[in-house]
Amino acid sequence: MSAECCGDDVRPAAPKRAAAEAIPNVERTAAPESATPASLMVADGDACCDPKPRASSDGDEEQRADRWWQDRALLPSIGAGVLVAAGLVLGWSGLEVAATVANVLGLILGAWTFVPGAIKRLLRGRLGVGLLMTIAAAGAVALGHVGEAAALAFLFSLAEALEDRAMDKAKDGLRALLDLIPRTARVETGGVARDVPARDLVIGDVLLVGAGELVSTDGVVIAGRSSIDTAAVTGESIPVEVAVGDIVPAGSMNGSGTLRVRATADGHDNSLTQIVALVEQAHARKGERARLADRIAKPLVPTVLVVAALVAAFGFVVGDPMTWIERALVVLVAASPCALAIAVPVTVISAIGSASRFGVVIKSGEAFEQLGTIRAVAVDKTGTLTRNAPQVVEVATIDGVDEGSVLDVAAALEATSSHPLATAIVAAASDAPNAVDVDEQPGAGISGTVGGAPARIGSTRWLDPGVLTASADRMAAAGMTVVVVEIAGAIQGVIGVRDELRDSASEAVRMLQDDGIDVVMLTGDDRRTAAALAAEVGIGTVHAQQLPRDKADFIATSAERRPTAMIGDGINDAPALAAATVGIAMGATGSAAAIESADVAFTGHDLRLIPVALRHARRGRRIMLANIVLALLIIVVLFPLALFGVLGLAGVVLVHEVAEVIVILNGVRAARRPRALPAPATSERALAHV
Question: Closest Cα to residue 290, out of 352, 376, 356?
């Protein structure tokens, strides 16, 4: 929990390494099937601040049931509570010896959950809230208040157990990601199918994915037709149709057809394991408010011990040591910063786990908190606002020339090119003939012979559109890339290719603007193309023809004035993503460099989920602030009441621990998903190949 308050709970390690070692299929060395992510465990930690070994995700049914009365972690606290209640009843009945026995047993059962950890920490030179509670309980026993000591141990252990349960519940969404990694996969070799461990898959393996089965790693369909459900990976609820040539991501659920998929990633390093690793990093760093809470809690523990010692010493000065020693013990409990130490972590983990379930993977608590402050968003164009899948949207020809014939000649020349525009033109042609003597001139175009006639295709910088100049200019103004087609030495047509906007882009921009967030486009593309698409999507400020350094400089300057987010997907966006207050990478299609540089990975395609995530983060910040204020108020109010004897030990313990439970329950509210997640846009679903 609170490292600054209580010392490091988990051994420090590089976030990705820790995640990889803990998750099957991430590292090349095989991990046990029961391996559990490091962040889903608490190693000799004092959340406030004592050791409670956490169950592995595979053993949850044994260690932590959904029904609280079946949760084994709660049994010591429940048992202590029953014994304390029995002690009260027996005391009221006049059976003092039996009441004392019940209280002693209740004290032992409750204290067993935190006293050993507090002592271990003390021997390592670290102070924690558990130490305050241990001293208070021991002092109460020394003063003859066994019942109060038992009540203190019961309530503190109960609050700790409830906190752990809240943490486990908040992490259920993260465990669900692990469940999407199949243990085995069917691989076809020489026409024979065999089952192999999913972590042993290598690039090039041919997977057989039957109806209703999970895809073990990223791949491309080489045979079959079906639909895949990527909801658990990308947050999109509508299945996507896939056929030969379509990409399928690891963790997606196959529909009714059978697919043969060629692996494009191995079993331990694919899009899903990368997402899981990113989620693991969410627990490696703390947000600004978490550090604020820890900075308050860290000096508070020794301060409380000093104040309690002074209060006890004052009793000897005034000649009433027993009264003031008792008050010193009550002060120890009243000023314990346990609620403060847990005020932020429960909220952050709850909110991050919730965000991961609708396609927004937040790497750290700091990123989550900063996400809630964003007042400006800069977006890249290609692959972010657009689908990164160019399409032929218009063909213009000279009089008497058929559009189809122009497309067929262009496709014949482009058939062997790897350029994205070539793919779009070939896909648009109906019956492309064969081309011979094809010669591609990088940066200009392609020449060759089609149907016995010389032909060329290229940009307007290489081929003058001639009589079609007006059409070419109109296409360029509309944001299209113009390709000129020349046959037998004469211009025959121009083709307009454009990377179409995502169907959700315009509404996402509007949602951001409605929330008072300024939206700017940063792109390396041509000014006219960028301006046309920006106008279509509703963005008023455009910075085009930007080099990576230009983007980074703009973001750094903007971030100095106000919290600024950058959304991008390419390697050229990586510097800007790193310079932003929060960098958001299009994780489903983004480059590794972009994802590494970003604070948040967006694994879906529906851009409307980004403003939803910003609202989610703002709500989480409000909950964190309320928790911090409430935790501080508890200390401020209880301290003088304890010091002047208004409340005794039992009353302070009750108020303090009830307030702590309230803080936990309030933090768990951050796990609630946004009320109105947008429905996927219809035409985008067909193109949502992750």
Answer: 352
Give the model's pLDDT for residue 15.
Answer: 33
- 263 φ, ψ to 5°? -65, 130
User: What number of CA atoms fall less than 13 Å from residue 103's CA on the CB side?
Assistant: 23
Catalytic member of 168, 246, 380, 569: 380
| Cis status, amide bond into 48, omega within 30 of 0 | no
473 pLDDT more than 60: yes
Enumerate long-range contacts of 292-295, CB under 8 Å, 24 or more apart.
Answer: 292/628, 293/2, 293/340, 293/341, 293/343, 293/344, 293/628, 293/631, 294/2, 294/3, 294/4, 294/5, 294/341, 295/4
Tell whether the model's pLDDT for residue 90 goes beyond 70: yes
Q: Read out DSSP for 243-298?
A: -TT-EE-TTPEE-SS-EEEEESS-TTSSHHHHHHHHHHHTTTS--HHHHHHHHHHH
Helix axes 345-356, 146-170, angle to 10 degrees: 20
Q: How far apart are CA 157 and CA 75, in angstroms?
A: 10
Tokens representing residue 180 in the block: 């999407």
Strands 219-223 and 360-362: unpaired
Average pLDDT, the chain: 75
CB 226 within 8 A of CB 259: yes
Q: How far apart are CA 245 and CA 198, in angstroms?
A: 22
Count of beta carbons in the 10 Å neighbourhood of residue 483: 28
| DSSP-derived secondary structure for 578-613 | HHSSEEEEETTT--HHHHHH-SEEE-SS-TTHHHHH
CB proximity list for 418: less than 8 A, separation 6 or greater: none
Span 547-590, pLDDT tens digits: 778 888 899 899 999 999 999 876 667 788 888 899 898 865 55
Q: Which domains does the chain have, with CATH numbers?
A: 182-277 (2.70.150.10), 362-387+502-603 (3.40.50.1000), 391-498 (3.40.1110.10)
Q: DSSP readout, 547-581?
A: -HHHHHHHHHHHHHHS-EEEEE-SGGGHHHHHHSS
- Encode burial over 49-80: b for 16+ CB neighbours within 10 A, e otherwise: bbbbebbbbbebeebbeeeeeebebbebbbbb
Confidence tier at 631 by pLDDT (50, 70, 90): confident
pLDDT tens readout for residues 304-315: 778 878 888 888
Q: Exposed/middle/buried for 314, CB within 10 Å: 0-12, 13-18, 19+?
A: middle
Summarize the chain as % helix, strand, coil (round to 5). 50, 15, 30
Token output for 129: 């809230």
The span from the CA of 484 to the CA of 630, in Å, is 68
Cα-Cα-Cα-Cα dihedral sign, residues 224, 229, 232, 235: positive
**Look-up of token digits 């200009």:** 444
96 Cβ neighbours under 8 A, 6+ residues apart? 90
In the annotation, is 380 catalytic? Answer: yes
Of the candidates 343, 347, 336, the one whose C-alpha atom is nearest the C-alpha of residue 301 is: 336
* Rounded distance between C-alpha atoms, residue 223 and residue 252, angstroms: 17
Residue with tokens 């208070």: 136
DSSP class of residue 7 equals -
Amino acid at 495: I
